[in-house]
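Researcher: Checking consistency across runs. Here is GTP cyclohydrolase 1 again:
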Amino acid sequence: MVEINHSQIEEAIRMILEAVGENPDREGLLDTPKRVAKMYEEIFEGINLDPKESFDLVFSEEHEELVLLKDISFISMCEHHLLPFYGKAHIAYLPRNGKVTGLSKLARAIEIVAKRPQIQERMTSTVADSIYEILDPHGVMVVIEAEHMCMTMRGVKKPGAKAITTAVRGSLVNDSYARSEILNLIHN
């Protein structure tokens, strides 16, 4: 887990509660600063982790065709408003020289990157870059679909609106047929 300063977070939360006109010493809020500090330790545990470390187990398998793991649920935190965004990630890659990894390793990379303050575009690129660097596949495509609470509960207030980001590396960059096939498999 990431090492965080609990007392500093607790003081900041007390100050926020006071700033919005609440009494941080009332019964319902008394332990809120401690709960928030503990929660931040959990939801930001990916800050000091490298998603490339997820791929500690690589197998040699005679398979150089599409590998797709879809509908990987995640929750992350928008760095602009410190509100969650959540949705599904989809990872596709074309192995090279029989170099594959366990499917859980792909999901773990998403989990690591999701547990830090960020924007969806960076999350998508970071996962694609990690896979491309470590597995050295012919190509990688990462698609992330997410609903952002900063658009749902504040601002334009548009529940249900989803942002879709993609990151494409290697041979898939110029292969529109393969990209279409991947998108079709994701959405069917």
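Researcher: Does this match what you'd expect to see?
Model: One thing to look at in this run: The domain at 6-43 is CATH 1.10.286.10 (GTP Cyclohydrolase I; Chain A, domain 1).
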